[in-house]
């Protein structure tokens, strides 16, 4: 669909100037990427206001300008469309432009502080195994069946979301499982998307740098459920304090999962070891390769979504029991008698869960050494909390760098150290260089010990001052363990 008036279907307009029948080559929100006859949508951002770049977009050949405030100078031959909310208009326009792909594929969005990637990855693997052509939009990667399309964000921008869904529909996909980050919800990256269902995993401390307060962060997640249509399902984790808040104004079908509270999808943990989980689900005892109680929640979420999409519970459990999960989530590397675990835990709750899971399966006096850092230019308030958790739950904690971005790495490390009391500081080491930190953890270990390398999971870079340097925890751990243990 590329006639402007069709692209504007269902967009809340304030006024228009110029030819509404004109053809639009593409929809762009970055003036630097404008091509001839593009429609440039001016969006106010966190750094700059896209309205400032209207002249630059015209210079590059934009034929249509979509904005919340019309510029003082109106140029002859250009169509101006004034809208109530540009970010929202961008999503709706992109959906129209790509032929409303979400009308033709069942899209399920997963939100929550932790567990989004794990949940959507399990769903994608499960539905592929069950014979469906399936799409995935996640932090680690985007996928159309087994074809990988690299991901730059947890949730892509509004135009990319629709373009990717179009590709999925063209490839015959019937389902798409996607993460909806709180940034994406607030920034309307999923506006215009018709969802078959939405899932809430949990909400704990993160991203206060962006949302300001925890209440605002809750509101961001809640918006996903407030905007759901009547025919969609809303599946929430009943054991999370905020589950009912999510459902409060939700028109969709309310569904719950949980281990403790009464829930539509409920399970009991029978055993939880480093080999996997055994769950009792409605009397069906099922073994899974996922580790930790938190993964019991993720598995229940996956089961709930599948059943709500019409799948047979027994078949789902059978297939799900053979699936491993997402890259960088509790990846175990055992070499020379030492077990290292690479995990993406980068929030206090995730770190606490992973460490408690490891402590729950520790058998004797083996040491647990945790290597952890906190991201630069991200929520500073989680730094002391994460450090405190690492020290409390481990034999020794080594604080190191994790994407310092534009901050001084030593400043970040000082913020972490501030969370550790004088009596515990002797249990810590601070080694800025991540490779050296991992090396030290290995040198301090003996046979039987466990090392947790937290925070980066699947990431294969260390981001310093705008440059991504190759760094892969699993790679470094494997190399150093092999070298230092002589295996
Ligand atoms: C803080 C944040 O979320 N920023 C996102 C936001 O950019 P922004 O609001 O800062 O944009 P801006 O630089 O102020 O520019 C405003 C507008 O002017 C336009 N512009 C700008 C310059 C110019 O020359 N011409 C021009 O037209 C820009 O294209 C933009 O439309 O919109 C951009 C387009 O969608 C995103 O790429 C960008 O993600 C940045 C890179 C980012 O790091 N985001 C992270 C925090 C993020 O989104 N994370 C979540 C996951 C969080 C989680 O794990 O839970 C994610 O979904 O990935
Ligand atoms: N349901 C859960 N509850 C709490 N912690 C979890 C849960 N699932 C996973 N985790 C922990 O959180 C980490 C991140 O998990 P995952 O990547 O699935 O979350 P995410 O919500 O996609 O995170 P992000 O917002 O950064 O993309 C995991 O490595 C694990 O440590
Ligand atoms: N999606 C999260 C990822 C954090 C991962 C961690 N390695 C870091 O860089 O802080 C964010 O952008 O805040
Ligand atoms: Mg994710």
TrEMBL record:
Stated family:
Belongs to the MurCDEF family. MurE subfamily.
Residues annotated as binding meso-2,6-diaminopimelate are 378, 402-405, 455, 459
For the modification N6-carboxylysine, which residues carry it? 221
- Which GO biological process annotations does it have? cell division; cell wall organization; peptidoglycan biosynthetic process; regulation of cell shape
Gene Ontology cellular component list: cytoplasm
The record's InterPro entries line, in alphabetical order, gives: Mur-like_cat_sf (IPR036565), Mur_ligase_C (IPR004101), Mur_ligase_C_dom_sf (IPR036615), Mur_ligase_cen (IPR013221), Mur_ligase_N (IPR000713), MurE/MurF_N (IPR035911), UDP-N-AcMur-Glu-dNH2Pim_ligase (IPR005761)
Q: Can you give the residue ranges of the Mur ligase C-terminal domain?
A: 328-457
Classification of source organism: Bacteria, Pseudomonadati, Bacteroidota, Cytophagia, Cytophagales
What is the protein name stated in its UniProt record?
UDP-N-acetylmuramoyl-L-alanyl-D-glutamate--2,6-diaminopimelate ligase
The residue ranges of the Mur ligase central domain are 110-305
Which cofactor(s) are needed, names only?
Mg(2+)
HAMAP family according to UniProt: MurE
- Annotated residues for binding of UDP-N-acetyl-alpha-D-muramoyl-L-alanyl-D-glutamate: 31, 154-155, 181, 187, 189
Tell me which UniProt keywords the record has, alphabetically: ATP-binding, Cell cycle, Cell division, Cell shape, Cell wall biogenesis/degradation, Cytoplasm, Ligase, Magnesium, Nucleotide-binding, Peptidoglycan synthesis
**Can you state which reaction this protein catalyses?**
UDP-N-acetyl-alpha-D-muramoyl-L-alanyl-D-glutamate + meso-2,6-diaminopimelate + ATP = UDP-N-acetyl-alpha-D-muramoyl-L-alanyl-gamma-D-glutamyl-meso-2,6-diaminopimelate + ADP + phosphate + H(+)
Q: Copy the pathway line from the protein's UniProt record.
A: Cell wall biogenesis; peptidoglycan biosynthesis
Please tell me the species this chain comes from: Algoriphagus aquaeductus
Q: What is its EC number?
A: 6.3.2.13
> What PTMs does it carry?
Carboxylation is probably crucial for Mg(2+) binding and, consequently, for the gamma-phosphate positioning of ATP.
Motif Meso-diaminopimelate recognition motif boundaries: 402-405
What are the residue boundaries of the Mur ligase N-terminal catalytic domain, all occurrences included?
A: 24-97
């Amino acid at each position: 669909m590329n006639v402007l008036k069709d692209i504007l279907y269902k967009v809340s307009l304030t006024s228009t100037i110029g030819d509404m029948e004109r053809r639009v080559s593409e929809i762009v929100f970055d003036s630097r990427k404008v091509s001839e006859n593009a429609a440039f949508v001016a969006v106010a951002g966190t750094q700059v206001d896209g309205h400032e770049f209207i002249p630059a977009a015209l210079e590059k050949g934009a034929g249509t300008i979509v904005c919340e405030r019309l510029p003082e100078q109106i140029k002859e031959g250009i169509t101006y469309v004034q809208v109530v909310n540009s970010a929202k208009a961008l999503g709706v326009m992109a959906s129209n432009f790509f032929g409303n792909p979400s009308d033709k594929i069942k899209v399920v969005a997963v939100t929550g502080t932790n567990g989004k990637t794990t949940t959507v990855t399990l769903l994608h693997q499960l539905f592929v195994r069950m014979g469906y052509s399936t799409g995935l939009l996640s932090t680690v990667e985007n996928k159309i069946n087994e074809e990988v399309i690299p991901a730059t964000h947890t949730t892509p921008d509004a135009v990319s979301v629709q373009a990717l869904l179009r590709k999925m529909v063209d490839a015959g996909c019937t389902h798409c499982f996607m993460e909806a980050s709180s940034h994406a919800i607030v920034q309307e990256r999923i506006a215009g998307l018709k969802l078959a269902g939405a899932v809430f995993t949990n909400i704990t401390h993160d991203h206060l740098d962006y949302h300001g307060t925890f209440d605002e962060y809750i509101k961001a997640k809640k918006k996903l459920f407030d905007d759901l249509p009547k025919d969609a399902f809303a599946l929430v984790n009943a054991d999370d304090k905020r589950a009912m808040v999510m459902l409060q104004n939700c028109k969709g079908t309310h569904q719950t999962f949980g281990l403790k509270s009464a829930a539509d999808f409920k399970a009991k943990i029978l055993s939880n070891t480093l080999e996997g989980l055994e769950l009792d689900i409605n009397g069906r005892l099922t073994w899974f390769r996922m580790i930790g109680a938190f993964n019991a929640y993720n598995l229940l979420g996956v089961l709930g979504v599948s059943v709500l999409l019409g799948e047979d519970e027994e078949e789902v459990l059978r297939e799900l029991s053979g699936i491993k999960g997402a890259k960088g989530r509790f990846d175990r590397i055992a070499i020379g008698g030492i077990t290292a675990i690479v995990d993406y835990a980068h929030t206090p709750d995730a770190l606490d869960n992973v460490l408690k899971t490891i402590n729950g399966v520790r058998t004797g006096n083996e040491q647990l050494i945790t290597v952890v850092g906190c991201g630069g230019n991200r929520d500073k308030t989680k730094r002391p909390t994460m450090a405190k958790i690492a020290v409390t739950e481990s034999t020794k904690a080594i604080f190191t760098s994790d994407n310092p971005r534009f901050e001084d790495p030593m400043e970040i490390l000082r913020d972490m150290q501030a969370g550790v009391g004088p009596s515990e500081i002797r249990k810590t080491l601070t080694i800025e260089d991540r490779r050296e930190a991992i090396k030290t953890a290995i040198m301090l270990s003996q046979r039987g010990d466990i090392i947790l390398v937290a925070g980066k999971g699947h990431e294969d870079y260390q981001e310093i001052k705008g440059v991504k340097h190759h760094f892969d925890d699993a790679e470094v751990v494997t190399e150093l363990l092999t070298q230092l243990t002589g295996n």
